């Protein structure tokens, strides 16, 4: 039996119409949003409704797929036995030297105290022989703790990814966000990983910055404790942050958070200027954000579950759920462009930063081959 949601997505591909399929972390439900025309919609003031995909450069407007049709379907056992082969990767010694040189330049700027932290990145190109939908299925099966998606617009292209990092979640005027930084390879024999000074310092910089930019713009701000969280073959350090924002203040909240220090740096303007000047390529939607914007959610007003009469009274709240676009790739005519990066601070070492980006790239490479 052919899945309706995948058949619908393939039809959109064939007709060159926008759509997105996605699975939220730890859920067993696929969602699809389908637009009936090929118009390129953008977000203006964040009062719009739909599935948003925003670029790293916050001076550019996010793209919006309008929910003309929405489909939900439980995850089933899919046939993943497509004929694939190990991808041909473009890495070479020149790329390694180039990235390490970029890291050295970043460290030099940090030592001059022009920056506290900057996130530098690179891209890898891989030849693939499987479809975007097949890659998406493999992402869903492989990364249960991530938002997995395949996104298509005929005027933009195809993007896929599996990202564990929340930019912001809101229900009504309440919000939660997180600071996520620090990386080490997962070892099944280690339950609680130990973190070095460099990773702890990097993560604390992100937490402190988020707290600073939200002061005065939010209420009842609460900062959680540092904790380790797993994403596929990697461990990260995370701190949860929550609070409330003013009604009609969603756009201000999102603009305050994006781009976060975890994908840009501190101070944000200086770090962004360094990235745009020195990375020598366009990140596009890598380290931007994506997700549901202004969806409606019914919520029961009855807190006494035994009182069934009052359970009929429900309120409708507006909900937004956005993720930072990490561990992602762009797919174009059998060529996958992967994006990976890492945070640079005073304690960074160019060789280790290269190795960290190699480890991060395994998240996507794993699903591009048998």
TrEMBL record:
<feature type="domain" description="Chorismate-utilising enzyme C-terminal">
    <location>
        <begin position="96"/>
        <end position="360"/>
    </location>
</feature>
<dbReference type="InterPro" id="IPR005801">
    <property type="entry name" value="ADC_synthase"/>
</dbReference>
<dbReference type="Pfam" id="PF00425">
    <property type="entry name" value="Chorismate_bind"/>
</dbReference>
<dbReference type="InterPro" id="IPR015890">
    <property type="entry name" value="Chorismate_C"/>
</dbReference>
<protein>
    <submittedName>
        <fullName>Chorismate-binding protein</fullName>
    </submittedName>
</protein>
């Amino acid at each position: 039996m052919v899945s309706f949601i995948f058949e619908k997505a393939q039809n959109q591909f064939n007709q060159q119409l926008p759509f997105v399929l996605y699975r939220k972390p730890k859920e067993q439900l696929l969602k699809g949003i389908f637009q009936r025309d090929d118009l390129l919609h953008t977000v203006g003031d964040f009062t719009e409704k739909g599935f948003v995909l925003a670029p790293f450069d916050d001076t550019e407007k996010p793209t919006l797929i309008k929910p003309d049709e929405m489909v939900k379907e439980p995850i089933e056992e899919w046939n993943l036995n497509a004929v694939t082969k190990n991808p041909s990767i473009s890495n070479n010694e020149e790329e390694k030297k180039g990235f390490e040189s970029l890291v050295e330049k970043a460290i030099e700027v940090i030592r001059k105290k022009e920056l506290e932290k900057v996130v530098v990145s690179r891209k890898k190109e891989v030849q693939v022989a499987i479809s975007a939908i097949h890659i998406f299925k493999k992402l869903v099966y492989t990364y249960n703790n991530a938002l997995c998606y395949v996104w298509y617009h005929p005027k933009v292209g195809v993007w896929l990814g599996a990202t564990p990092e929340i930019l912001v979640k809101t229900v009504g005027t309440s919000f939660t966000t997180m600071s996520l930084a620090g990386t080490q390879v997962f070892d099944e024999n280690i339950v609680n990983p130990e973190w070095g000074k460099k990773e702890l310092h990097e993560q604390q910089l992100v937490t402190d910055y988020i707290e600073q930019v939200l002061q005065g713009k939010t209420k009842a701000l609460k900062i959680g404790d540092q904790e380790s969280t797993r994403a596929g073959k990697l461990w990260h350090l995370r701190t949860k942050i929550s609070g409330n924002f003013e009604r009609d203040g969603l756009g201000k909240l999102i603009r305050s958070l994006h781009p976060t220090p975890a994908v840009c740096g501190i101070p944000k303007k200086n770090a962004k200027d360094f990235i745009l000047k020195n990375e020598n390529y366009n990140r596009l939607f890598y380290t931007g954000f994506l997700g549901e914007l202004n969806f409606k959610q019914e919520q029961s007003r009855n807190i006494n579950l035994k009182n069934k009469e009052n359970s009929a009274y429900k309120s409708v709240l507006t909900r937004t759920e956005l993720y930072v676009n990490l561990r992602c790739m762009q797919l174009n005519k059998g060529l996958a462009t992967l994006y990976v990066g890492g945070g640079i601070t005073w304690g960074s070492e160019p060789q280790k930063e290269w190795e960290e980006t190699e480890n991060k790239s395994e998240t996507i490479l794993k699903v591009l081959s048998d």
